[in-house]
Design a protein that fits this description.
Elements: E1 2-6, H1 9-26, E2 31-34, H2 41-52, E3 62-65, E4 67-69, H3 80-89, E5 99-100, H4 109-122, E6 128-131, E7 153-156, H5 159-165, E8 179-182, H6 185-188, E9 193-198, H7 204-212, E10 230-235, H8 245-254
Parallel strand pairs: 1-10, 2-3, 2-6, 3-5, 6-9, 9-10
Antiparallel strand pairs: 4-8, 7-8
Length: 261
Amino acid sequence: MEVVIVPDARAGGELIAAAIASLVRRKRDALLGVATGSTPLPVYEALAAKVRAGAVDVSRVRVCQLDEYVGLPAGHPESYRATVLRQVVEPLGLPADQFMGPDGSAEDVQAACEAYDKALAGAGGVDLQLLGIGTDGHIGFNEPCSSLASRTRIKTLTEQTRADNARFFGDDIEQVPQHVITQGIGTILNARHLVLLATGEGKADAVAAAVEGPVAALVPASALQLHPHATVVVDEAAASGLKLAEYFRATYVAKPAWQSL
């Protein structure tokens, strides 16, 4: 995979936003897969700034969710649907009918998972999927030991992931749902371009395991090594565990091909 080391989170956001803008100029109705959490916020802020400046027309862009909590009341501010609407869809000025996600409140959750997987395929597939990485190496909510061929499905969150997400629920882990719908690793790998953004020293071990370790279900993000077009963007802190950090820096400076994709 391609690894790009940037000075800080803001630089990572600017770089990825530029790549998204380039994609949209080539394909105006691109399907953009988005992630939630604090890490991708610089990407959305930089992309929205480009839209406000008239640097890119996103009026036909479609957006899809990576995952959704199960069981939160409709309209709950920490549902991922509400989060994506607030952080991505509204700032970009997109109509609601250009946004798609799984139904976390469905009575038949398994049927909702299957329907979402089919909807993504029916929409022509995801052109660029933005990903984060958990401290235990998970992507989406594919926790350690998830099948690398898995499709969209319901998952039980580990206590570590619930603890990591408690900050969005007033630091009360009891308020964090125990189950989620998530795109499976196999579903994620169907996207044409995977872009993983990681920032902060707390992600350094997970990044090193995903990038330089073996492909293993214990580190779900390592599955990106199997993808023909995967880019990992990390700040200096998140890159601190990489043995080949200097090589990655030299390679990118010598041939910054990813910026022109």
